[in-house]
């Protein structure tokens, strides 16, 4: 059987084209992920700079100003310094747990960004259980902290890990109940559906106005989950040196530092999504969904605006945890647990009961 050379060239070019398509498909899968990771990294650097500038203003200081314009590169310089520092290991500690702990904390928080819509339907995974997936993933973080405390072979570190686990369990339950209440109001647990349910009524349809009690409980619980003052008992320097971070140095310490700010950004974004309408902005008689039907060029412009609005709301909310860090004193451990179990839990359950009753009456 004789095959023409032109046919062979055609077959070879076809296979090359198919292989290029496969490579292009694989690259296109990873492009959104790398873009998200890069955006998150920049967001964390901005949060660190904001916290230092705001805290300096509260204490009547200047703050960072030499590393880059207005000191914007100071966090990057600190990260580079931690990356180059020596990585010390405790001689009698459990080295495996000691090494794995920071990675578990960072990876579990990064996975939470999968279900966050940064703009109009701009989300990596629009799951029907989006908000509850975030809660499930965030509950893994205290396991990493407990592993770090136990693997350090240090009483201060182990006490910090135990405090982190107790604090997380105490405040995750009211947080979950608040999210369940919003899911009942929105008839969905998808983050995109929750935002669209608020957009039906404009600015007055935000869950902030429909669930003010749940909003307050959610903020307090999320601050406790992020271990921010006045809830930073796991790393209280007056009592535990640095808590579960005591034996860490170099890049592993930097991972804990990164995890705390990643968690803070996640909490602010979920406050924006659940209570502040997400990407929606209020124009009388016009919704952002209607703006998408005009033309393709204007659609890109609206996507950019929706991303800007989501991030603007999240960063405006960040002023609350930053200012509370420099204004409120630290609570005692018994006060922290009493607040979670004796006050926030009954209030969130009562709020859930009232919301369920009103939903049944409206049927």
3D architecture notes:
70% of the residues lie in helices and 0% in strands. It has 15 helices and no strands. The chain is mainly α and 363 residues long. It folds into two domains: 1-84; 96-362, no CATH class. The protein has helices spanning 5-58, 74-84, 95-111, 130-138, 141-151, 155-186, 191-199, 207-210, 212-225, 237-240, 250-275, 288-291, 296-317, 319-325, 333-362.
Structural class: mainly alpha
Query: What average pLDDT do the residues reach?
Result: 82
Rg over CA atoms, rounded to whole Å, is: 24 Å
Q: How many domains make up the 3D coordinates? A: 2
Total strand count, please? Answer: 0
Q: With helices defined by DSSP (H or I, 4 residues minimum), what is the helix count?
A: 15
Amount of helix:
55-70%
Beta content comes to: under 5%
Order of helices and strands: HHHHHHHHHHHHHHH
